[in-house]
C-alpha cells in the first residue's frame, strides 16, 4: 500500500473540506461514514440532509450530492463557486442473500425516497439475477396499483407502508467506486488514496464472493446468481485454490482469456507463461502489468489463507482511468525515471554552485524550463535532478534527443499513433512519450534541431495541454512538465526564421544556463577523482604535471570530453601513475590552440611585466579587482557597464569615482589586458588578460 504523503498528514498542510448532501439523515450518515474510512486523516467531512434545514450556505472544496434531483433542490444552499459532484450510488450487496429465500413471482415493494431511485434499484437487482420477483416501485406520493405484503428498501425504513408485514433492509446505497475515484481526483488525492480505495474495493468483493460461494455450495441451483453478479463487474475476476483449480472465472475474464469455468486449471488458460507463473506464485503478491493480445492488463492479487484461495482482479489499462497511478509506476519500473539528483552534480566552484542553487528554486514550480549549455556540460543531468526535486517526482521522467531522431519518426515517437495510421504501424497502436510521461516530466534535448512541422505541433501541446495521436481523431489531455535543452542560440534562430518565436517563449517560462568546464576549472580536480571512482580505478594516481595540463586544456567538449580523457588514461597507464607521456596524441596542441585567439595571437610569456606596469600606474589590487570582475560577468555570458563596475568597486574601494574607474580601464586597455567596445560586447578580457588573471590569482593574498 502506498505511503501517505504530506497531503494527508494534517499537520502543516491545510486540510480540505468535503460536504456530503443527502435526502435523509440515515443516508447522510451512511455516506459520511463511507468516505471517512478513506479520507478522515486528511479531509474534514460535513454532512447535510433535507430533513434538517441548512442554516448557512454550504462551503467546501467539493460538495457531493446523492442524486440529481437533490442537487437541483439544494442548489440555492451551496455557496457560489463551490464545485458540485452528483455521485453514482450502488446497492449494498452484503445482505443480498436475504432475498434468495423469497419465492419466485412474489409481489414485493421496493421502497425508496424518489421515483428515480426506486426504479434504478429495481433495475440493479434484475441485473444481478434477482429478476424472478414481481418488484413494485414505492416512494412518497406514488400511486399504488398492486398490493404487497413484503417490502425491500435501501435504508428508507421510515417510508415503508404500515400494511407491509415483512421488510428486508439492504442498507442505504453507498457511493459507487467510480464516483469515489472522481472525488479523489477533485480533491487531488489520487496518488495518496487510490490504493486504499482499490484495496477496500477488492476486499469487499473478495469477502462478498467468498460468502456467496459457501452459500451457493450448499445449494447448487444458487450458483447462477454468483455468476451473474460477478459478470456485471467490468473487471476480470479469477479465484482459484492453491492447487490451481479455478473456483471463479467471470464473463470479463472469458473475453480476455477465452472460455473457462470453475473446475478448470489455471495452467490450461490461454495466457502467457509469465502470467501463469505470476498467478500461481504465493510469494509474488505485488500488482503487475502484462501485455496480452495488444492489451495492457493490470493484475492485482489477494490471498485468503483460511480457504487456501487466491483472488485476482484484472483491469484493462485503457478502459479503467482509476488505475493510471499503477500504470505510471510500471512505466517507472521500465526505466522512465530521473537517474540523477543534485547530489550527483560534481562541482564546488561558485559559478556551478550558483547554477545548482537556481535550479533547485526552479524545481519547485511546474512551469516549462529551457536549459542552455554547450555540448557535454550535463544538461540532462540538471534536467533529471530538477525532476527529482520537483513536486511531480513520483511520476515518470522521459527523455528524447531530437538530434538523434529522424523527422519522419519524431511525430509518432512524441505523440503516438493509432492502429493502421501508416504502413508498419503496430496492431493496437502505440503510446507516445507525452502520454508515457503523463503526471511527470518530459525532457526534450537538442530542441534547436526540431523541424518546423514538429515545432508547430509542440506549440499546440504546450498551449492546449492535450495531444492527438497520429491517425487519431481524439484529443487526449495530458499533465506534463516540459524541460527543453539546447546548445544553440535560439534567439538568433528566431531572427533567422529557423525557430518559432512563440514556441521559444512557451518553452522559456524559466531559464537556466549550465556553465562550461572552462568557466569552472577549479572543479577539474574533483571531476577527475569522481570519474576514477566511477570507473573503479581509485588507485590510479595523476601526476602534478598532468593535473596542471588538465586544468589548462580548453575542454571544448566540456565534462564529457574530460571523462573520455580519464577513461583513456585508465586504459593506457600500466604504471599506476599517469605521466605526460600517457596523454592522448594532440593533447598539447589542444592546450596551445585553446589559448590562441581569433587572430592567432599567443599569450605573452613575460607576465611579470604587467605587474610592474600596473604598480607604476596605481594600486595593483584595484586593477586585479576590475580584471576578475570582467571575467565573472563574461563567464556568465553577460557584459558590464562602467557604471555597474563603479557601483561594484565602491563596495571594496569607496573612494573610486566613475571617472577614476574609466581611467583604470583605459590603463588595462593600454596594456592590452582588456578590450573595450561600444554596445553589447562591452569590456572583455584579451588572451593575455585571461592568462594574467590565472597567474596572479595564485598570489592573491600577496596583493590583497
TrEMBL record:
Keyword Hydrolase among UniProt keywords: no
The organism's place on the tree of life at top rank: Bacteria
Report the record's Gene Ontology biological process terms.
regulation of DNA-templated transcription
SMART domains the UniProt entry points to: AAA
Q: Which UniProt keywords apply?
A: ATP-binding, Nucleotide-binding
Domain named Sigma-54 factor interaction: residues: 345-571
GO terms (molecular function) for this protein are: ATP binding
- Keyword Nucleotide-binding recorded: yes
Note the PANTHER family from the entry: C4-DICARBOXYLATE TRANSPORT TRANSCRIPTIONAL REGULATORY PROTEIN DCTD (PTHR32071:SF57), TRANSCRIPTIONAL REGULATORY PROTEIN (PTHR32071)
> What is the recorded name of this protein?
AAA family ATPase
Source organism per UniProt: Aminipila butyrica
Amino acid at each position: 500500500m502506498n505511503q501517505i504523503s504530506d497531503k494527508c498528514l494534517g499537520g502543516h498542510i491545510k486540510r480540505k473540506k468535503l460536504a456530503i448532501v443527502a435526502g435523509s439523515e440515515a443516508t447522510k450518515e451512511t455516506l459520511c461514514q463511507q468516505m471517512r474510512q478513506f479520507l478522515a486523516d486528511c479531509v474534514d467531512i460535513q454532512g447535510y440532509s433535507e430533513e434538517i434545514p441548512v442554516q448557512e450556505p454550504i462551503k467546501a472544496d467539493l460538495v457531493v450530492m446523492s442524486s440529481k434531483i437533490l442537487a437541483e433542490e439544494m442548489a440555492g444552499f451551496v455557496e457560489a463557486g463551490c464545485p458540485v459532484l452528483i455521485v453514482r450510488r450502488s446497492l449494498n450487496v452484503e445482505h443480498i442473500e436475504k432475498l434468495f429465500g423469497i419465492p419466485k413471482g412474489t409481489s414485493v415493494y421496493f421502497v425508496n425516497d424518489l421515483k428515480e431511485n426506486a426504479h434504478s434499484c429495481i433495475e440493479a437487482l434484475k441485473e444481478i439475477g434477482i429478476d424472478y420477483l414481481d418488484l413494485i416501485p414505492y416512494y412518497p406520493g406514488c400511486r399504488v396499483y398492486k398490493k404487497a405484503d413484503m417490502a425491500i428498501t435501501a435504508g428508507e425504513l421510515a417510508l415503508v407502508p404500515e400494511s407491509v408485514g415483512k421488510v428486508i433492509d439492504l442498507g442505504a446505497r453507498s457511493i459507487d467506486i467510480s464516483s469515489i475515484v472522481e472525488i479523489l481526483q477533485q480533491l487531488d488525492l489520487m496518488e495518496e488514496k487510490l490504493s486504499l480505495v482499490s484495496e477496500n474495493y477488492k476486499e469487499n468483493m473478495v469477502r462478498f464472493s467468498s460468502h456467496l460461494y459457501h452459500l451457493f455450495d450448499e445449494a447448487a441451483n444458487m450458483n447462477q446468481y454468483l455468476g451473474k453478479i460477478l459478470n456485471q463487474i467490468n473487471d476480470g475476476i479469477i479465484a482459484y485454490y492453491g492447487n490451481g483449480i479455478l473456483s471463479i472465472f467471470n464473463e470479463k475474464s472469458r473475453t480476455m482469456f477465452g472460455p473457462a469455468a470453475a473446475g478448470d486449471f489455471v495452467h490450461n488458460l490461454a495466457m502467457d507463461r509469465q502470467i501463469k507463473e505470476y498467478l500461481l506464485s504465493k510469494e509474488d503478491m505485488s500488482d503487475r502489468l502484462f501485455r496480452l493480445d495488444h492489451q495492457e492488463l493490470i493484475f492485482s492479487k489477494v490471498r485468503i489463507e483460511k480457504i487456501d484461495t487466491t483472488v485476482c482482479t484484472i483491469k484493462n489499462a485503457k478502459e479503467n482511468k482509476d488505475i493510471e497511478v499503477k500504470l505510471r509506476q510500471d512505466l517507472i519500473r521500465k526505466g522512465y525515471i530521473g537517474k540523477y539528483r543534485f547530489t550527483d552534480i560534481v562541482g564546488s566552484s561558485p559559478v556551478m554552485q550558483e547554477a545548482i542553487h537556481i535550479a533547485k528554486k526552479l524545481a519547485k514550480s511546474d512551469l516549462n524550463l529551457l536549459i542552455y549549455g554547450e555540448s557535454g556540460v550535463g544538461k540532462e543531468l540538471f534536467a533529471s535532478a530538477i525532476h527529482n526535486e520537483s513536486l511531480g517526482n513520483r511520476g515518470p521522467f522521459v527523455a528524447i534527443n531530437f538530434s538523434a531522431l529522424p523527422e519522419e519518426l519524431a511525430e509518432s515517437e512524441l505523440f503516438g499513433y493509432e492502429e493502421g495510421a501508416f504502413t508498419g504501424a503496430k496492431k493496437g497502436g502505440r503510446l507516445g512519450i507525452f502520454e508515457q510521461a503523463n503526471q511527470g516530466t518530459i525532457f526534450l534535448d537538442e530542441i534547436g534541431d526540431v523541424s518546423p512541422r514538429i515545432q508547430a505541433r509542440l506549440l499546440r501541446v504546450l498551449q492546449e495541454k492535450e495531444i492527438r495521436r497520429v491517425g487519431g481523431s481524439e484529443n487526449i489531455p495530458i499533465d506534463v512538465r516540459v524541460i527543453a535543452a539546447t546548445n544553440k542560440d535560439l534567439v538568433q534562430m528566431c531572427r533567422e526564421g529557423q525557430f518559432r518565436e512563440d514556441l521559444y517563449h512557451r518553452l522559456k517560462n524559466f531559464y537556466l544556463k549550465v556553465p562550461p568546464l572552462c568557466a569552472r576549472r577549479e572543479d577539474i580536480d574533483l571531476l577527475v577523482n569522481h570519474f576514477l571512482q566511477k570507473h573503479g580505478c581509485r588507485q590510479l594516481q595523476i601526476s602534478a604535471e598532468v593535473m596542471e595540463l588538465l586544468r589548462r586544456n580548453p575542454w571544448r567538449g566540456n565534462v564529457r570530453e574530460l571523462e573520455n580523457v580519464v577513461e583513456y588514461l585508465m586504459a593506457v597507464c600500466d604504471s599506476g601513475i599517469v605521466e605526460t607521456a600517457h596523454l592522448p596524441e594532440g593533447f598539447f596542441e589542444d592546450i596551445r590552440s585553446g589559448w590562441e585567439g581569433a587572430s592567432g595571437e599567443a599569450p605573452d610569456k613575460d607576465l611579470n611585466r604587467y605587474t610592474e606596469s600596473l604598480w607604476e600606474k596605481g594600486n595593483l589590487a584595484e586593477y586585479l579587482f576590475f580584471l576578475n570582475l570582467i571575467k565573472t560577468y563574461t563567464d556568465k555570458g553577460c557584459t558590464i557597464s562602467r557604471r555597474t563596475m563603479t557601483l561594484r568597486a565602491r563596495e571594496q574601494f569607496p573612494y573610486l569615482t566613475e571617472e577614476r574607474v574609466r581611467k583604470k580601464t583605459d590603463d588595462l586597455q593600454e596594456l592590452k589586458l582588456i578590450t573595450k567596445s561600444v554596445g553589447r560586447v562591452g569590456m572583455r578580457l584579451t588572451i593575455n588578460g585571461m592568462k594574467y588573471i590565472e597567474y596572479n590569482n595564485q598570489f592573491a593574498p600577496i596583493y590583497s
